[in-house]
Amino acid sequence: MSWDDESVRSALQRYIQVETKGQVENCCVRCRLRTLGVPCKLAGCDVYCLPQPTLERLCEVNNNHTEACANSCKLCLGLLTDQVLQYFCSVIQTKLKEFQVDDTFRISVKLCESYKDQLLQLACWTDCPLPQVDLKQCFKWYCGTEIERQLHKKFAVDSDVEIRIEVKQVVDVGKELEDMVSIVLAPIYFQGRYRKLSRRLSQSPWIVDNVRLAPDSIEECLYDYLMEQLGAKECRFSAGGREDVDVRMLGTGRPFIIQVLEPKCTSSYVNHERFLKEWSRRVLLRSGGQVQVLDAKISNASFSLKESEMMKQKTYRCVVYISKSLNEGIIAEYLSSLVPLTIEQYTPLRVLHRRSLAKRKRVIHSIQLRKMLNPHFGILDLVTDAGTYVKEFIHGDLGRTRPHLGSLLGCETDILQLDVLHVDIASDWG
């Protein structure tokens, strides 16, 4: 649509009058149109995307003169000028070379905190009406169209490529503007399950008073390759519960999600099958064979482990001590008759320093006890509600868990080893 198209000029005449009350000194032509309420799209034409000289001629045709002051407009901080836009496009093009991205983009604009106050003061001092068209909206429309034209990319509100522009002062091409522009890619989400084969490995880095209490952590084993290959700024880890340092996670593994923040590429540039296979191999090497990644895939943020964690069941296997010899057949029949068994647990003494005191009800859904060669030792398999303190169910925690295994068998019981065999989660997890 050319600037002299009759339908555009006619449409503009409804907004541009011969005299405009409250002229603003050094107001750019686009801000003049904003104060007059001219929309971004008019008569099928992207008005604010027209070149600055064209807009000035349009205003002159309608006897509305505006000062061609490109760099010091108080109403837009200099954002809505051709010179500044071209500079921004050049900076954006240069910065995009550091990334591997799709052919879409979106724009976000953050204005300095004092901008609204400046507008109100300006309106009071000059008797000028406040702009009716939002500056951010206008700039996104104006800048987005130019980026599409110059960089051959398409604007999309759901794009993984975000061009952030943070304006802290009046924009002047004579000053450095690179710091105002940043490229931020959407997080990439990895999900899977991990097996932990060590009794000396914490889930997250275990550091107290700057002293590391566990030599390594599952998080660090999982992060290293992702950070290195994707150039990420940070990773965030979320799992379907956690096991103690001395507890192994066996069987089907524990579900987890890793959020990779500000990577240097979008997920479409990751060769999923090859990348995930190599990631699993590198985790195994990094952990000395103590951490295995299962069912790994690239996912999205729609699934929350926290929401489903407490609604599922978990399967455990324990090695337990029993103070007196009992008949295995009688024990098995007796314990199976008790389930489902509801227990009450106060916050265990071992975690009371970091968790609030509370009483929780949990259900034991299955109990199976098999004796070992020594009649005082046995293997106990349990299926419980998520959130059950299994160690305390075995030894009672000085009466803070009722009933516990010892009170059910009428003797003293204790736990020697504990393994998690299965963590039940949503059926679509994998």
Overview of this protein structure:
The protein is an alpha+beta fold. The chain has three domains: 6-185, no CATH class; 188-308, Alpha-Beta Plaits; 310-423, Alpha-Beta Plaits, CATH 3.30.70. The chain has helices at 6-13, 29-35, 52-61, 82-96, 115-126, 135-151, 218-230, 272-286, 305-309, 328-338, 390-395, 405-409, and strands at 41-42, 45-46, 104-111, 154-155, 161-167, 181-185, 188-196, 207-208, 211-212, 234-239, 248-261, 291-299, 313-322, 341-346, 359-371, 377-385, 401-402, 413-423. The strands form four sheets. Strands 7, 10, 11, 12, 13, 14, 15, 16, 17 and 18 form a ten-stranded mixed beta sheet that branches. Strands 4-3-5-6 form a four-stranded mixed beta sheet. Strands 1-2 form a two-stranded antiparallel ribbon. A hairpin with an 8-residue loop joins strand 10 and strand 11. Helix 7 packs across helix 8. InterPro entries: PsdUridine_synth_cat_dom_sf, Pus10-like, Pus10-like_C. Keywords: Isomerase, tRNA processing. One of its GO terms (molecular function) is tRNA pseudouridine(55) synthase activity.
Class derived from helix and strand content:
alpha+beta
Please give the domain count.
3
Helical stretch tally = 12
Percent of residues in helical segments? 25-40%
* N to C succession of SSEs: HHEEHHEHHEEEEEEHEEHEHEHEEEHEHE
Strand content: 25-35%
Please state the overall shape, judged from the principal axes of the Cα atoms. elongated
Question: For the CA atoms, what is the radius of gyration?
Answer: 33 Å
Number of strands: 18
Uncertain parts = 18-22
Main beta-sheet annotation: 10 strands, mixed
Which whole number gives the mean pLDDT?
85
Question: How far is the first residue's CA from the last residue's CA?
Answer: 53 Å
